[in-house]
């Protein structure tokens, strides 16, 4: 494993480039495109929480400027991870639950259609940003952000389901297939209802529409991520047969 004795080179960290992401041996370091954090570090589930990982995180902190906020994500966090993060000066502030259920699920009761790149971009962005105005990752999406995601190898317009009412986009359910999981699984990557259509019972059928697509592709497991303190959403997903499988935990530290 490569170790460095000094701060991570600023050119490697990508200072000044908000889209920069680099792989440092075992950790992913990035500059979020928006929000309070100057740097975000992610530890994957198969990475040991040991001196080597701690040393790499300390290099990121050493390369940050005074006053910078640094975020640490630990995927599939366990109780002992709080102590690991605390030793590095990080405090927990956010839990993201992975909830999962077997497929198929009950069929959706609403009609949906596939997203059409180019034709649906603007309306999707408007609905997304109204629905996720509070969200640190999904909120504030730009046309460039959407184009970047559509250029990813996993993007499938057929799996990006739209529901319209009265000639308007009322909600969407964007799915993503993970062929590397065992067994291969499908994710509800992003789902939202336009605030103008809240209270019309669209959350459940929109979720089922996404699960329908994943099931029709032959997948036998479906999952999603949800904020642990989003009680209404968690309750809805429990009613749809999802259960809590693991937690990704976020920690923050202000560099002195």
Number of E-type strands:
11
Architecture per CATH nomenclature, i.e. the level-2 architecture of the largest domain: 3-Layer(aba) Sandwich
Name of the top-level CATH class of the largest domain: Alpha Beta
Major β-sheet annotation? 11 strands, mixed
Low-confidence stretches at least 5 residues in length (pLDDT < 50)?
Answer: 1-25
**Shape assignment:** globular
The end-to-end span amounts to 29 Å
Number of domains: 2
Strand line-up in the sheet with most strands: 1-2-3-4-11-5-10-9-8-7-6
- CATH-defined superfamily of the largest domain: Gcn5-related N-acetyltransferase (GNAT)
Indicate the mean pLDDT.
89
Number of helices: 7
The amount of beta strand, in percent, is 25-35%
What is the third-level CATH name, the topology of the largest domain?
Aminopeptidase
Structural class: alpha+beta
Q: Name the helicity range.
A: 25-40%
Q: H/E element string?
A: HEEEHEHEEHHEEEHEHE
Give Rg in angstroms: 20 Å
């Amino acid at each position: 494993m490569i170790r460095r004795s000094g701060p991570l080179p600023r050119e490697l960290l990508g200072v000044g480039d908000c889209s920069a992401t680099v792989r440092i041996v075992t950790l992913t370091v990035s500059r979020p495109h928006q929000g309070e954090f100057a740097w975000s570090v992610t530890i994957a589930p198969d990475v040991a929480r040991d001196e080597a990982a701690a040393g790499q995180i300390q290099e990121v902190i050493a390369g940050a400027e005074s006053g910078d906020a640094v975020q640490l994500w630990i995927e599939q966090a366990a109780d002992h991870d709080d102590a690991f993060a605390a030793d590095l000066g990080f405090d927990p502030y956010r839990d993201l639950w992975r909830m999962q259920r077997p497929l198929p699920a009950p069929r959706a009761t609403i009609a949906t259609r596939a997203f059409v790149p180019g034709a649906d971009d603007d309306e999707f962005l408007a609905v997304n940003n109204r629905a996720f105005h509070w969200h640190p990752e999904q909120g504030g999406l730009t046309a460039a952000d959407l184009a970047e995601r559509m250029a990813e190898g996993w993007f499938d317009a057929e799996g990006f389901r739209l529901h319209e009412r009265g000639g308007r986009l009322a909600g969407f359910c964007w799915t993503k297939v993970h062929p590397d999981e065992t067994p291969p699984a499908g994710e509800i990557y992003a789902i939202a209802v336009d605030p103008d259509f809240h209270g019309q019972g669209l959350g459940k059928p929109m979720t089922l529409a996404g699960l329908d697509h994943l099931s029709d592709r032959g997948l036998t497991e479906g999952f999603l991520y949800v904020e642990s303190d989003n009680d209404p959403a968690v309750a809805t997903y429990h009613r749809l047969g999802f259960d809590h499988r693991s937690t990704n935990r976020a920690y923050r530290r202000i560099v002195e």
